[in-house]
Amino acid sequence: MVNARYDHAVETRELRYFVAVAEELHFGRAAQRLTMAQPPLSRAIQRLERRLGVVLLHRNARGVALTEAGSVLLREARTALDAVEAAERRTRRAATETPGLVLATKAGASRELLSKLLDGYAAEPGAVAVEVVLCGPGEQERLLRDGRADVALLQRPFDTTAGFDTEDLHTEQQVVVLPAGHPLADRTHMSMAEVTTLTDLPLPRWPRRDGSHPGGPGPQVRDHTQLFQLIALGRACAIVPESLRATLRDEHATVPVPDAPAVTTVIAWPPHSRSTAVADLVRTATRL
Amino acid sequence: MVNARYDHAVETRELRYFVAVAEELHFGRAAQRLTMAQPPLSRAIQRLERRLGVVLLHRNARGVALTEAGSVLLREARTALDAVEAAERRTRRAATETPGLVLATKAGASRELLSKLLDGYAAEPGAVAVEVVLCGPGEQERLLRDGRADVALLQRPFDTTAGFDTEDLHTEQQVVVLPAGHPLADRTHMSMAEVTTLTDLPLPRWPRRDGSHPGGPGPQVRDHTQLFQLIALGRACAIVPESLRATLRDEHATVPVPDAPAVTTVIAWPPHSRSTAVADLVRTATRL
DNA sequence: GCACAGCGATACCGCACGGGTATCAGCCGT
DNA sequence: ACGGCTGATACCCGTGCGGTATCGCTGTGC
Q1: Residue A26 lies in a domain
Q2: Domain that residue B145 falls in
Q3: Looking at residues B55-82, what average pLDDT do you find?
Q4: Is B79 in Cβ contact with A87 (below 8 Å)?
Q5: Do A187 and A249 belong to one domain?
Q6: How crowded is the C-beta side of B176, counted as CA atoms within 13 Å?
Q7: How many contacts (CB atoms, under 8 Å) link A and B?
Q8: Domain check: are A152 and A274 in the same one?
Q9: Running DSSP on this structure, what letter comes out for residue B205?
Q10: Which class for A24: exposed (0-12), middle (13-18), buried (19 or more C-beta within 10 A)?
């Protein structure tokens, strides 16, 4: 360290600190989350702001608000931290002798596609063990980005495939799931407009990525089991890909919704992946 | 810092150190490049290895070699460091009041497309200033990845578009450029095989990303000016997209090479880009 | 209207860690 | 066998980071 010029580059620790503060919007709670005291955290953020020459937070006497630049940094810092974590994890995994693949997929979705894929790949010469990680909605992208998974099954337009390489596997229409015996249950088809105006069966509210639920009339649901139970009880309806019909019992009825957006299941993997196992798995998948 | 457990996460400084060593394959030179002494660098790498629980380098008494895990980390660390740099740069730019776009493109390539794009976008309502950065082959991806550019024109299959969102703009065939008056100059077409066996006119050798040149018979070239001069002198030939014919004078002749891979010019931008300016520019581009 | 609660900023201190110099230890080529 | 490379080790020093104590501010409740 020759002198006190601000030529230091940003460290991941500072990014972690900033993300904590930006998420909590409260220095004290953020410090607690980081298991440190509040003053050094305040100073670290000040240092970061000075170094970037940018005001990241507006300090109102009662808490904190993100500036425009701050919300840019929040988004960018998250992906940068994911990239660092991914570097760490992939390096560790590269050093273990059992390579293996980790495949992330949504619980309950694309069951048939998944088993065909796993069987097909296992029959390939040179196939390695595949560990399947079932995760909540929107979680797969995170796993793929931070190196916990090597490959994932995603569904457009629900999941965002930005930043990954993908191959389309399967496209399907959506259906509305109703309680069996509902007056509309034997319709040949319904429109989105009709479904959203079913006031007796509101659409459920899924949690956002941060765990909070959007406001609205429908019940809050966390997974498909809850969802289908609520539908069977006549408290909700839902628009889902038609392949989910395979998991339904006779307490549910389905009606096609032709104008709902088609759902495309894609296989996704991080770019620059040099793994032949990933390439083999993708090749198997596209042949199905 | 409660105790001496190895629960610290990887810092960007350590990644920078490792990349320097992995690129130089020599602690002394790497330390010089980092403007620091060699011993602390050695220790930092040891710490990193201990923390990851992985051997990254084989220390032969005469220099250093990357392990399997080491080369994984080299690749991953580069993208992670680019992501951190991008976070820094984009945050700084978000704080400046003049938004502006930076567009990276290869020098000399797609001149006509570029001017149509710039004119078309400038006519859009809400258009912001566009700064054009001309850069060497393969450099655009770097600029896009580390936040120095917001959008780039790339050419498949020369450039890799992995990790970016892209839209195809234009596909063209390739032609071979010969000195005017060459015996083959008035052929209606040639095959790749014919071109590569022209021993009197070897294909030139472009520098790799690290600046080194591959071995071979042809002359080394750094840019298109050098290339076309060498061709005019009867020392080389080259296969280039046909749009480059517009920049040629009468000292060159071109012959189509139908079996050369078609070149697709795409517009690329980093995923998660929330900038409306980028979206507008892309929309303009796809309408051309 | 004033005291208090809650927030982030500041002051000050101690230590651990990052960096420097000097030196050691192996391995090659001559 | 011995210099001349390499990277590793020993030891020291300065500073930068984190800790505690406290301040300054502001909105709030009685």
Answers
A1: yes
A2: 98-162+270-287
A3: 89
A4: yes
A5: yes
A6: 29
A7: 139
A8: yes
A9: B
A10: middle
